[in-house]
């Protein structure tokens, strides 16, 4: 027992640390190995594939915006054109540019308010905005607008309809405001002139206030009536007009002039993004049948086998644009960087007698013309100078009166009979 103990003691002494060794020295540090992700990439040259992938992604990021839009055209008779359904029926060919986005790059849809969106022009504008993928809120009090004009969108989740009078404020969150709300025909705006001017002034104030609060872009649809009975022919945007401020039409004429003033004051004083369009005579499907405007009057009278009513001597002139041309101009103006005002109309000029003859050719060659006393403050000449819109918006009307009138006649025939 004693021998075994001394043996173990000697064995312990043999394994003692040398006297000069520091018992507190740290252990030797092993060389650090690479992180597992790096080790994984370096193994079997996977890094080469990663670099190639980064190069491809960088190339797409740089070149993507230039490749994002591509014109798609449908070939018709050997020429590249895209024909809309309504125009195709009458044999009129209208070229429309369609944009297709590269996979993975999509246009962000906008939330857009259209006041008066159940009306004649407003409903066609709503069609176009929904067609391109935007979310549209229509505000209308249905004084002249009709639910039938927008009923085909009721099942569309991107469409909303609010019965509301713009004379009263409303709170919404949108990106753009198309302000069309106002009766536009003499029969309607003379029916309640005080309401008409309140719509032009209070309604425009409310919509401009909304645009200021939420930072939305605002487009005012003004009118060629701001030129009154013009002393300049054709009318350019720099012409200040010749308007009777106390006449029976002044609730509309001066109301729109005040709306333009408010729009520019909000632009200069509150930095609101605004656009101003001055619309000339427009016709097409969904017009009110008995609204007192000359095209709708003539078409309805001819279909009912009634005499065509011409006021005065019939030598006063107007210019008529088809509604799809106007909608294209409004959208181009809203998407542009130009404030305006811009004349949007067809420079083709017709006397009332010439228009009556075109209607007779289109509907009833046996129709008779009946002359009546002219209305007060009726302009003698009206023709837009659209040089500014051509140069800055690259816009001009495509559909002539003889091409577009049959499309309107088809719609009126269904509604009258």
Detailed description of the structure:
The chain is α/β, with parallel strands linked by helices. It has a domain at 110-285 and 322-347 and 380-401: NAD(P)-binding Rossmann-like Domain (Rossmann fold). Helices cover 39% and strands 15% of the residues. The chain is built from 13 helices and 17 strands. The chain has helices at residues 2-14, 36-42, 46-67, 85-88, 120-131, 186-191, 193-214, 250-270, 294-303, 323-335, 352-362, 387-393, 401-416; strands at residues 70-72, 75-76, 79-80, 98-100, 111-115, 135-140, 159-163, 176-179, 217-223, 274-279, 282-283, 308-311, 317-319, 321-322, 342-344, 349-351, 369-372. The protein has a 7-stranded parallel sheet with strand order 7-6-5-8-9-10-15, with helices on both faces. A hairpin with a 2-residue loop joins strand 2 (75-76) and strand 3 (79-80). The model is unreliable at 9-19 and 67-104 (pLDDT under 50).
């Amino acid at each position: 027992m004693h021998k075994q103990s001394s043996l173990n003691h000697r064995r312990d002494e043999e394994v003692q640390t040398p006297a000069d060794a520091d018992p507190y020295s740290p252990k030797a540090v092993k060389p650090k190995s690479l992180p597992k992700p790096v080790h994984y990439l370096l193994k079997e040259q996977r890094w080469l594939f990663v670099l190639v992938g980064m190069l491809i992604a960088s190339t797409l990021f740089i070149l993507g915006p230039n490749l994002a839009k591509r014109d798609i055209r449908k070939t018709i008779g050997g020429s590249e054109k895209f024909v809309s359904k309504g125009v195709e029926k009458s044999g009129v060919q209208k070229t429309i540019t369609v944009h297709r986005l590269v996979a993975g790059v999509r246009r962000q849809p906008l939330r857009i308010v259209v006041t008066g969106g159940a009306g004649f022009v407003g409903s066609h504008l709503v069609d176009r905005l929904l067609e391109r993928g935007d979310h549209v809120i229509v505000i209308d009090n249905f004084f002249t607008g009709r639910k039938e004009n927008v009923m085909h969108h009721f099942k569309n989740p991107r469409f909303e309809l609010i019965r509301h009078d713009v004379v009263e404020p409303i709170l919404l969150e949108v990106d753009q405001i198309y302000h069309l709300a106002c009766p536009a025909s003499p029969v309607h705006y003379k029916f309640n002139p005080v309401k008409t001017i309140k719509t032009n002034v209070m309604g425009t104030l409310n919509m401009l206030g909304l645009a200021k609060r939420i930072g939305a872009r605002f487009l005012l649809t003004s009118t060629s009536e701001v030129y009154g009975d013009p002393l300049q022919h054709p009318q350019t945007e720099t012409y200040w007009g010749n308007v009777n401020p106390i006449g029976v039409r002044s609730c509309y004429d001066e109301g729109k002039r005040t709306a333009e003033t408010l729009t520019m004051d909000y632009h200069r004083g509150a930095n609101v993004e605004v656009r101003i369009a001055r619309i000339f005579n427009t016709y097409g499907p969904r017009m009110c049948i008995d609204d007192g405007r000359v095209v709708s009057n003539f078409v309805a009278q001819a279909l009912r086998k009634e005499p065509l009513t011409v006021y005065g001597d019939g030598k006063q002139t107007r210019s008529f644009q088809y509604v799809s041309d106007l909608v294209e101009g409004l959208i181009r103006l809203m998407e542009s960087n130009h404030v305006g005002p811009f004349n949007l109309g067809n420079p083709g000029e017709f006397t009332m007698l010439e228009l009556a003859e075109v209607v007779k050719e289109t509907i009833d060659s046996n129709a008779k013309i009946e002359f009546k006393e002219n209305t007060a403050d009726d302009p003698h000449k009206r023709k837009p100078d659209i040089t500014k819109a051509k140069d800055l918006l690259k816009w001009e009307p495509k559909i002539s009166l003889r091409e577009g009138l049959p499309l309107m006649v088809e719609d009126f025939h269904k509604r009258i009979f």
